[in-house]
């Protein structure tokens, strides 16, 4: 187990290097001038442009720029954005918000998704099953932008049940609706995944054994069947945490949330290479750790998987 | 396992059984445990109605081993599942008959009352122990669950009992392996665990549905031996389901041969072996490989078992029967006494018996 973790951690290094280099190269190749628009309506004075390019190593060849960046990265420095703000500070602040949003989304997924899936699975072919199947299909096929804007309009603006936008404090109450919107597609997917697994496992031999042991139906279904059906679901949720922490660009824009996704979006628009690379690097690292966690969890949930 | 341990296990079990029978509302009369009476089961599927069981009757007494024999699809497992009350309904439908345990009809019993008979009164071992054990729970936990559900025992007591049972079914290092998972055991050991679980609450009736089919020949004999030993020790009524006559020959007292959802012959093991009264039984016996006839072709029964959605009229076996006469396609033969304490469902049993 320990060895496995060390091996996985070592494997992350080339992945992080590769990912950051790719992003770096892409940002480098982006057309446009990072100083454009920095000096109001007029183009910036040449002296300012020269100083700016010097400060951000923009005159060096790609590999040299990247090398210098890596040197700083190794010291834990994600660089300073073109706006003069240290990327690390900005990210740290925004990660609190995005983290809250992601965790609440996962809570929705777990609660509603699993509940609906189990209900549909044990009532296969009945009304509730069809209801779950149709409504999840609907949710999956409607873009999150439409779901978000609609709910914001009706529950927020018209009925006034929820705040329409999220302040920089990002309170629990403010994030209720956005996190639900963010989770909607995954809720639907998890409901379907849980249902499919329940239906399949209810036919399994060990469930028949559980009934033959004289266990209550509640125990045979709620413990023996569910425990096995949740293995792929928990795995999916784990992977999804990684994706959600990557920032929810659309949801954050709808509700004006000061999160990581919005920051990335803005930085790309501003040709702010340092900010983009720093953010993506952080995302890659978060994603890799989430994945490692999922794999470890998988080993815990399914004793047949061994990490030796 | 030391002798003191084994005798203490035996002592606790004798105690447990006495206790169980004293507490139990089910008391066998004259040793009669189970009466299956004219049972009918159908499967309603999109393709049509499969008549899987068509009037099966048999009795089971304390300390008796009944083997149920038949080709694949003859309805052995469905019979067992109907007795256990674990048929999937739908698609299954019990369309007739009774299953009486100690005189009480299980089929009309309230669900909760019936549930409580599974485990303490009637218990079952399945063919494939790997898929029949839950992969995500330790084996000891799965055995202990019997005590927790039915006896309300606490965790550590239940685990103690699980270890004792694992020792009883001769699992080496039971104490160390009680927390291991099913996939960490060999096929034979897994089947022992299934057996330990099934006998945990000292059931009066144990049904073993092809308990050795998935195992090596040497392991098969060990498992059969263990089942026989437990059956004698606890005076259980044992139903052994098999499609292999050779496997049960030494263990069974009585044999019921099934074909297309009916019992076509019923006899003591020895009589049946010596002199089958039904052409189907005769065909089965001739298809057992024998050492003294090595090299000769097996006279397997030609043809296939009937489609249960279109069972032939008259005797269901007639398309494959070498004794068949015109009568056989018109009149269905009922199970009748062809010799003292021998029953067969064939119009021409006398001819079969004579050669
Ligand atoms: N779940 C089911 N759905 C539909 N039909 C079924 C089902 N289970 C059993 N049957 C029908 O019942 C018949 C008898 O099945 P059963 O399992 O009792 O056979 P068996 O004698 O145990 O055979 P085997 O030796 O293969 O285990 C099958 O041929 C099939 O047509
Ligand atoms: S009744 Fe006829 S067809 Fe059926 S087993 Fe006897 S002889 Fe064969
Ligand atoms: Mg079977």
Can you tell me about this structure?
The complex is a heterodimer of chains A (308) and B (355). Chain A has 308 residues and is mainly α. Chain A has a domain at 98-301: MetI-like fold. Helices cover 75% and strands 0% of the residues of chain A. Chain A contains 12 helices and no strands. Chain A has helices at 2-29, 46-55, 62-74, 87-122, 127-141, 144-158, 172-202, 205-212, 217-245, 249-254, 260-269, 273-301. Chain A is flat. In chain B, a hairpin with a 2-residue loop joins strand 11 (336-339) and strand 12 (342-344). Chain B has helices spanning 3-23, 76-84, 111-115, 129-132, 139-151, 155-168, 174-177, 187-199, 217-234, 245-248, 269-274, 279-286, 349-353; strands spanning 32-45, 48-61, 65-69, 92-101, 104-105, 122-125, 205-209, 237-242, 254-259, 262-268, 336-339, 342-344. The N and C termini of chain B lie far apart (52 Å). The longest helix of chain B has 21 residues, at 3-23. In chain B, the strands form 2 sheets. In chain B, strands 6-7-8-3-9-10-12-11 form an 8-stranded mixed beta sheet, sandwiched between helices. In chain B, 35% of the residues lie in helices and 23% in strands. Chain B has 2 domains: 3-252, P-loop containing nucleotide triphosphate hydrolases (Rossmann fold), CATH 3.40.50.300; 259-291 and 298-353, no CATH class. Chain B has 355 residues and is of the alpha/beta class. Chain A binds chain B through residues 204-206, 208-216, 219, 224, 227-228, 231, 301-304, and chain B through 84, 86, 115-120, 123-124, 126, 128, 131-137, 145-146, 149-150, 181, 183, 194, 197. Bound molecules: adenosine-5'-triphosphate (ATP), iron/sulfur cluster and magnesium ion. Iron/sulfur cluster binds next to loops of chain B. Chain B: Residues 34-285 form the ABC transporter domain. Chain B: Belongs to the ABC transporter superfamily. Chain B: GO terms for molecular function: ATP binding; ATP hydrolysis activity. Chain B: Keywords: ATP-binding, Cell membrane, Membrane, Nucleotide-binding, Transport. Chain B: Residues 1-10 have a biased composition (Polar residues). Chain A: This is Oligopeptide transport system permease protein.
């Amino acid at each position: 187990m320990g060895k496995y973790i060390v091996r996985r951690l070592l494997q992350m290094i080339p992945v992080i290097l590769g990912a950051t280099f790719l992003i770096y190269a892409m940002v480098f190749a982006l057309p446009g001038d990072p100083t454009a628009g920095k000096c109001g309506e007029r183009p910036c004075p040449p002296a300012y442009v020269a100083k700016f390019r010097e400060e951000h190593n923009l005159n060096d060849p790609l590999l040299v720029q990247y090398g210098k960046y890596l040197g700083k990265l190794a010291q834990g420095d994600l660089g300073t954005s073109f706006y003069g703000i240290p990327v690390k500070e900005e990210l740290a602040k925004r990660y609190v918000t995005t983290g809250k949003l992601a965790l609440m989304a996962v809570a929705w997924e777990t609660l509603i998704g699993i509940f609906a899936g189990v209900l549909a699975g044990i009532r296969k072919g009945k009304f509730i099953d069809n209801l779950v199947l149709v409504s999840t299909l609907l949710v999956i096929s409607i873009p999150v932008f439409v779901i978000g804007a609609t709910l914001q309009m009706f529950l927020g603006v018209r009925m006034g049940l929820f705040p329409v936008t999220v302040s920089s404090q990002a309170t629990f109450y403010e994030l209720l609706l956005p996190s639900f919107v963010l989770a909607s597609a995954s809720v639907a997917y998890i409901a379907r995944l849980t249902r499919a697994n329940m239906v399949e496992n209810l036919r399994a031999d060990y469930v028949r054994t559980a009934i033959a042991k004289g266990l209550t139906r509640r125990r045979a279904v709620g413990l023996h069947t569910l425990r096995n059906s949740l293995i792929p679901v928990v795995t999916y949720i784990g992977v999804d945490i990684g994706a959600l922490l990557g920032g929810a660009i659309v949801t954050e824009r709808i509700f004006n949330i000061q999160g990581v996704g919005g920051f990335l979006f803005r930085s790309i628009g501003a040709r702010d290479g340092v900010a983009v690379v720093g953010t993506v690097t952080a995302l890659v690292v978060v994603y890799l750790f989430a994945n490692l966690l999922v794999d470890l969890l998988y080993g815990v949930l399914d004793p047949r998987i061994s990490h030796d | 396992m030391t002798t003191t341990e084994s005798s203490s296990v035996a002592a606790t079990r004798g105690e447990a059984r006495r206790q169980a029978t004293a507490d139990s509302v089910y008391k066998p009369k004259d040793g009669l445990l189970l009466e299956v009476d004219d049972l009918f089961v159908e499967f309603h599927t999109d393709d049509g109605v499969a008549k899987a069981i068509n009037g099966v009757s048999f009795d089971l007494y304390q300390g008796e081993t009944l083997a149920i024999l038949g080709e694949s699809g003859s309805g052995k497992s469905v019979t067992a599942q109907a007795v256990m009350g674990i048929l999937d309904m739908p698609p299954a439908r019990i369309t007739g008959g009774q299953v009486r345990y100690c005189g009480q009809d299980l089929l009309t019993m309230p669900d909760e009352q019936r549930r409580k008979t599974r485990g303490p009164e009637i218990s079952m071992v399945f063919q494939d122990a790997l898929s029949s054990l839950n992969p995500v729970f330790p084996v000891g936990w799965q055995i202990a669950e019997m005590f927790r559900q039915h006896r309300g025992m606490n965790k550590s007591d239940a685990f103690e009992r699980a270890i004792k049972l694992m020792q009883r079914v001769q699992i080496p290092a039971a104490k160390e392996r009680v927390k291991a998972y099913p996939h960490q055991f060999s096929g034979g050991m897994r089947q022992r665990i299934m057996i330990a679980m099934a006998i945990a609450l000292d059931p009066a009736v144990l049904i073993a549905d092809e308990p050795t089919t998935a195992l090596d020949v040497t392991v098969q004999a060990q498992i059969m031996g263990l089942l026989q030993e437990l059956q004698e020790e606890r005076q259980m009524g044992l139903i052994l389901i098999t499609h292999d006559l050779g496997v049960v020959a030494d263990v069974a007292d009585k044999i019921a041969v099934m074909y297309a959802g009916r019992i076509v012959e019923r006899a003591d093991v020895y009589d049946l072996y010596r002199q089958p009264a039904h052409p189907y039984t005769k065909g089965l016996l001739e298809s057992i490989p024998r050492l003294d006839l090595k090299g000769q072709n097996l006279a397997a029964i030609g043809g296939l078992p009937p489609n249960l959605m279109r069972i032939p009229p008259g005797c269901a076996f007639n398309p494959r029967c070498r004794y068949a006469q015109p009568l056989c396609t018109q009149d269905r033969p009922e199970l009748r006494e062809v010799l003292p304490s021998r029953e067969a469902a064939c119009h021409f049993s006398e001819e079969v018996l004579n050669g």
